[in-house]
Amino acid sequence: MQKTYDLNVIKRTSIITPDQLREEFPMTETATRTVMESRQEIKDILSGKDSRLMVIAGPCSIISHRQAVEYGKRLARLQEKIKTTIKLVMRVYFEKPRTNVGFKGLISDPHIDKKTFDIDEGLRKARKILMDLNEMGVAAGTEILSQTAAERLSGLIAWACIGARTTESQNHREWASAFSMPVGFKNGTDGNLDTAINALLAASSPQVFVGNDPHGVTSRVFSGGNRYCHIVLRGGKRPNYDPVSIAEAVGFLSKYPSLIQSVVVDCSHKNSGKDYRRQGEVFNHVLIQRMGHTNGLSIRPNKAICGLMLESNIEEGSQPFVYGETRKEDLNPFVSITDACIGWEETEDILLTAHGQLQQKSGS
Predict the structure, then answer these.
(1) Where is the DAHP synthetase I/KDSA domain positioned along the sequence (predicted)?
(2) In 48-168, where does DSSP find H-type helix?
(3) What whole-number distance in Å separates Cα of residue 103 and Cα of residue 268?
């Protein structure tokens, strides 16, 4: 009989199961404490119990253990200086959504050669990085693209994000309803808020969906809903970090009292016009709205603003990279190969300045 399935499949290979990966890289007391305490701090910030500002900062994409750990060490030192006003979460993105084709992240292609696609090795590298960061006391945040990665890594994640391209995905909404960490849903690529609001309503509700158990066996998953899902404003056809746009988002949220009434603002992507050099400008505009004053001029403070996101690397900008042609050994691990990022010096300056302003505000 003629075969009617897998006509375009070249081959299938098995990958490491969630349990096998966890056995290779078991949780430690320190890592567990970092994850659990950070999740609770983020929940308290989202619900208004903690008055600090959450800032998710880190590379557009993680391309090596060396890069991630070096950035994490710097973030850990900075966190000690600003912990009274700001909760830092490191952006640790292992999966990258592509508009058409391209490098899909360290998990998909850890050798960055467009040939091997050693996903087992990618998952091992990702879990090792997350273990080391949490051992340092650094909270990790990541974008969830695949159920495969989520099932194997989510125990080490303090905050997760669903991107603009996948906010409308039923699967991602279902997964988020079962996640143990707070989850931010970005508005759609066109700036539409309805998509994100509907995602929050779905993810905060109990769901039944198809997933895998710790042994990798397909199973039904029954979730209880995730009440700490929230909206992330990233711009669309126009930026949406201005007071009118944020007020509009808060107004939408107020129609659904059961949802988290706080917003996180992404300083990159369409809010910066995809110009990494404008991220600091966006950050400061939003910080002014949060605090309610600047240079003696007062405006109504917007307490719904609870967090900001920065695409930041050790060195600024991006480097020439042609996927499948540029060799990994020729790459500078501290410069982005995807979206351009601000450098560490600017990142530190932005956050130390914000800390000083927030301290002054709390003491006024």
Answers:
(1) 40-350
(2) 65-82, 119-135, 147-153
(3) 20
Contact 289, 250 (CB under 8 A): no
Contact 253, 259 (CB under 8 A): yes
CATH number at residue 263: 3.20.20.70
Tokens representing 63? 């391309």
The overall longest dimension of the chain from CA atoms, in Å, is 80
One-letter amino acid at 91 equals R
Q: What is the mean pLDDT of each run of 10 residues along the chain (364 residues)?
A: 93 95 97 98 98 98 98 98 98 92 96 96 98 98 96 98 96 98 96 96 98 93 98 97 96 97 97 97 96 74 96 98 96 97 98 95 66
Q: Distance (Å, rounded) from C-alpha 351 to C-alpha 344?
A: 11
Provide the residue range defining the domain that includes 59: 18-358
The torsion defined by the Cα of 349, 359, 34 and 105, in degrees rounded to 10, comes to: -30
Q: Is-contact 279 268, C-beta < 8 A?
A: yes
Asked if residue 91 is part of any domain, the answer here is yes
